[in-house]
Design a protein that fits this description.
Elements: H1 3-18, H2 22-29, E1 33-42, E2 48-59, E3 65-72, H3 77-93, E4 100-106, H4 114-128, E5 137-141, H5 147-161, H6 181-199, E6 208-212, H7 216-227, E7 231-237, E8 240-243, H8 250-260, E9 270-272, H9 274-278, E10 284-287, H10 296-299, E11 306-308, H11 317-325, E12 329-331, H12 333-336, H13 339-353, H14 359-384, H15 388-407
Helix pairs in contact: 1-3, 1-15, 3-15, 4-5, 6-7, 6-13, 6-14, 13-14, 14-15
Bound molecules: glutamic acid.
Glutamic acid binds at residues 66-68, 90, 140, 142, 169, 312, 337, 340-341, 344.
């Protein structure tokens, strides 16, 4: 099943539950604009390399399109559309005034030099600058991109449109970025886990967690859980994994990862491959990297009681159904990882007002918004006796549907 078919499946399930007409379903699901452009750059060795860039704008009934930009060799139009759709429901779940979009370039970004990455980013902005902007569509970091890439986007966009820091979020704090944007997604995931534990009446200090991915999301999540005294026993990244049943010392692991470019080989632990991480005996399993990792092939190996979707689209429908039948609780991506776009919203607000918030304020406001969304979703799930995913879609799609009807065609 492709990434988009997965997104469509979850939409269909909820749409049926909501009793949406076929016409309304088609209207809500069809993307408003899909852009596909050539991005040609000169490599450091003087040769020309040509890449394909995408930007898909799914829905803007509730506000300007919003969503990340992914640099990865597996990026394609289907995946970008799936992720753009998820952004529409995600911004709606946390009730921030945006629609949904996603972009990407099909490239193995790890193989590019900083100069090549910069040229790639600037050429991409040259190709799409007319369809993005502070009131049109606001890109942000995603897999393979970071604050530096956002700084190049802003700089290149401004060459066409003048000073416009709100045209992109996730920028460096020295260049109109919000304090706390970096940690926001991981911190939000941690917060959602703590709230789930409170609802389940379980003691955080007695729980164990395995995290797949130690990038922006996984690393800040591990740090947050460590501070809350929740035991993170296993972590993996693209190069390998580590396990320690007494709990990993996350600040030390951070330092090691920073020095070595990976957590693989971290001394105070045993090595672990990615496949074994998904099957490890931990209470919480957190996929925090690629999509589609929990599927028919490995769903029966999962031993966790809770799956926390820090990544976008990590669970295929077959695996989702299986987990539900086994009583494994899945917390859905469109709630769990919404902290990132929530703080992107704060950055956009600050840029529009030329006013900078302190980190404390960002954290407070994010916690408030995510807690409210969690409580609403929990209530819907309990009242209707449905999964948290269906409840999140119910809330997200419901708001977009209402805005669409109110605005009219
Ligand atoms: N890429 C992130 C996501 O998937 C953040 C998007 C944003 O901040 O606009 O939610």
């Amino acid at each position: 099943m492709s990434a988009y078919e997965t997104a469509e499946y979850y939409f269909d399930q909820s749409a049926r539950l909501m009793g949406l007409s076929d016409n309304m379903q088609r209207l809500l699901l069809t993307p408003e604009r899909e852009v596909k452009v050539q991005v040609a750059i000169e490599m450091d060795n003087g040769e020309i390399a040509t890449y394909i860039g995408f930007r898909t704008q799914h829905d803007q009934a509730r506000g300007p399109y919003k969503g990340g930009l992914r640099y990865h060799h597996e990026v394609d139009q289907d995946e970008v559309l799936a992720l753009a759709t998820l952004m529409t429901w995600k911004t709606s779940v946390v009730n921030i005034p945006f629609g949904g979009a996603k972009g990407g370039i099909q490239v193995n970004e790890k193989k590019l030099s900083p100069g090549e990455l910069e040229r790639l980013t600037r050429r991409f902005v040259d190709a799409i600058h007319d369809v993005i902007g502070p009131d049109k569509d606001i890109p942000a970091p995603d897999m393979g991109t970071n604050a530096q890439v956002m700084a190049w986007i802003m700089n290149q966009y401004q060459k066409f449109h003048g000073f416009n820091p709100a045209c992109v979020t996730g920028k460096p704090t020295e260049l109109h970025g919000a304090e706390g944007r970096d940690e926001a997604t991981g911190r939000g995931v941690g917060l959602m886990m703590m709230q789930l534990m409170a609802k389940q009446k379980i003691d955080p200090k007695l729980q164990t967690v395995a995290i797949q991915g130690f990038g922006n999301v996984g690393s800040y999540l591990a740090r947050y859980l460590y501070d809350q005294q929740v035991k993170v026993i296993a972590v993996s990244d693209a190069y390998g994994g580590v396990v320690s049943y007494e709990g990993l010392n996350i600040p030390k692991l951070w330092e090691y990862a920073q020095q070595n470019g990976s957590i693989a080989g971290y001394p105070e632990s045993e090595p672990l491959d990615n496949k074994s991480l998904l099957a490890i005996d931990a209470d919480f399993l957190v996929p925090a990297a690629l999509g589609g990792v929990l599927k028919v092939d490995n769903m029966k190996d999962v031993r966790a009681k809770y799956i926390i979707e820090a990544a976008n689209n990590p669970t295929t429908p077959e695996a989702d159904r299986y987990f539900e039948s086994k009583g494994i609780i899945v917390m859905p991506d469109i709630l769990v990882n919404a902290g990132g776009v929530t703080v992107s919203y704060f950055e956009w607000v600050q840029n529009q007002q030329y006013f900078k918030w302190e980190l404390d304020r960002t954290r407070r406001e994010m916690d408030r918004i995510m807690t409210e969304s969690f409580e609403k979703i929990w209530e819907i799930a309990t009242q209707k006796k449905i999964s948290l995913r269906l409840a999140a879609y119910f809330l997200g799609i419901g708001r977009v549907g209402k805005a669409t009807v109110l605005g009219g065609i």
